[in-house]
Amino acid sequence: MIPLYHDLSDETVLVVGGGAVGRRKALGFAEEARVVVVSPAFDDRLCEAVAEGDTSVELVRAAPDAATVPEWIDRVSPALVVAATDDRAVNAAAEAAALDAGVLVNRTDVSGGRDPESVVVPATVADDPVRVAVSTGGRSPALSKALRERIGAEIEGAGAMAELSGELREELSEAGVDPMLRREAIRRVVRSEGVWKGLQKGRSNARREAENVIEEVVDR
Fold first, then answer.
1. What CATH number does domain 12-121 carry, 3.40.50.10300, 3.40.50.720, 2.60.200.30, 3.40.50.2300?
2. Superfamily classification of domain 123-155
3. Hey, where are the domains in the chain?
4. 126 pairs with which residues across the strands?
5. CA distances from 179 to 102, 165, 182, 186, 191 (A)
C-alpha cells in the first residue's frame, strides 16, 4: 500500500458501528468531514461529545445488517465507509457494498492484505502545518500509537519551522536567487541547530539565525 493524504473537506464519511472503535474513527474524521454514524447503540463518550456540541457527528440509531448496509451507502453517498462493528458479517457486507459503489472503505477488523480501494487509517501526529502518519498495515495499533508518541516529541516546533522556511523560500524566489542556491540555503536553514533553538525563543530570533545561514550560502 502507498500512503496518501486525502482531503475529505465537504465529503461524508459513513461509520457503521458506534462502539469504541467507531467512536475513535468518527471523532477523528469529524475534524475535516461530515460524519454519519449508524448503530443500534453508541459509545458513551461519543454521545457526550455530540451532546456537548464538540463535534459535528450525526448519530443515527439503527441496526444495519448484511442485507441493509448497501441502502445506507446509497442514502448517505459517502466518500469513505468505515466498517467498525463487532459483527464480521456486517463489516464484510459494508466492505463489499462500498467496493461495489466505488467508495473507499476502511474495515477495522482486518489486518494485513487488503482489497483495492481499501484504506488503512494511520496514527497521526501534527504540529500544523506539519503532519506525520504512522501505519503498521493494521497489524499492530499499539505499535502505531507508541511510534506516534515518540515522533510527537521529535517534531515539536516543526510547524513553526515549516512556516518560517516556507516564507524564506518565497522571499528568495521573489528576489531572483538561483534555484540551486535557494534550495541549498533552505536545506541549511531547516538543518540549523541555531534556527531550531531560535524558534524556542521566538520567531524574530529564529529569523535572524536563518538569515545568517542564508547569507553564508547566497553571498559565498
1. 3.40.50.720
2. Sirohaem synthase, central domain (3.30.160.110)
3. 12-121, 123-155, 158-218
4. 131
5. 42, 15, 5, 11, 18
- Which contiguous run of DSSP H or E holds residue 15? strand 12-16
CA–CA dist 220, 217 (Å, integer): 6
- Amino acid 100 reads D
Q: Which one-letter amino acid corresponds to residue 136?
A: T
Question: Residue 39 in contact with residue 62, Cβ under 8 Å?
Answer: yes
| Pairing label, strands 12-16, 80-83 | parallel
- pLDDT tens track for 49-74: 999 987 889 999 999 899 999 999 99
Q: Number of helices and strands (H, E) in the chain? A: 9, 7
Residue in this structure with the C-alpha cell 464484510, named with its chain if needed = 92
> What's the pLDDT score for residue 115?
65
Residue (of 194, 184, 192) closest to 217 by Cα position: 184
Q: How far apart are CA 25 and CA 45, in angstroms?
A: 13
